[in-house]
Amino acid sequence: MLWPRLARSLLRRPLTDAPVPPLPETVAALTERLEAASRSRLGRSLAIRAVNAGSCNGCELELGALQGVVYDLERFGLRFVESPRHADVLLATGPAVRNMSEALLRAHACMPEPGWVVAVGDCALDGGLFRDGYAVAGGIGAVLPVDLVIPGCPPSPSLILEGLLALVEAEA
Ligand code: SF4
Question: Which residue segments constitute the domains of the chain, with CATH numbers given?
């Protein structure tokens, strides 16, 4: 019967664990450093073009959280853009699957200087779980010169923010 099952699913608690909230002080400290560093190097903005090169979408969920109300990167001038022509950073997730290699190369070729490449997640490092797949060329480094790898499966938004900060500070 459908109705008892429907009633049970409406009344019982969700099966997923509650998310661990990030420490507000950690977020504030990271964004403050990032804001200061990006202002001197990039004029108070950091435009990021995200490319899913073959990810399972786990890393994309964390990138989505980075743009949500908790981290809210846009208030600091950090934003995700739709075109690589407007981007300072090409942020690639997932292994580089063969069908996406050309798209990655073209996206990078469109970018203005400095054209940094950030590989996010264990898959972007070396192919991760998918490294032996016939469709996988390897990590993002197999296609593009990578400036920074942010490991994790998936890395947390704080870790991604920390990585972007390290990149901007190193280049400032
Ligand atoms: S690193 Fe983990 S979450 Fe990210 S694409 Fe690979 S398997 Fe998915």
Answer: 47-157 (3.40.50.12280)
* Ligand 1 neighbour 127 (Cβ under 6 A): no
Alpha carbons 81 and 41: distance in angstroms, whole number:
19
CA distance 47 to 42: 9
pLDDT tens digit string along 14-50? Answer: 777 776 666 666 666 666 666 666 556 556 578 999 9
Q: Judge if the beta carbon of residue 153 lies within 6 A of ligand 1.
A: yes
- 144 with 112: CB under 8 angstroms? no
Contact between 116 and 166 under an 8 Å Cβ cutoff? The reply is no
Residue 134 structure tokens: 């016939």
- Identify which of 30, 35, 50, 169 has the alpha carbon closest to the alpha carbon of residue 117: 50
Pocket test for ligand 1, best of 62, 93, 130 (most atoms within 8 A of CB): 93
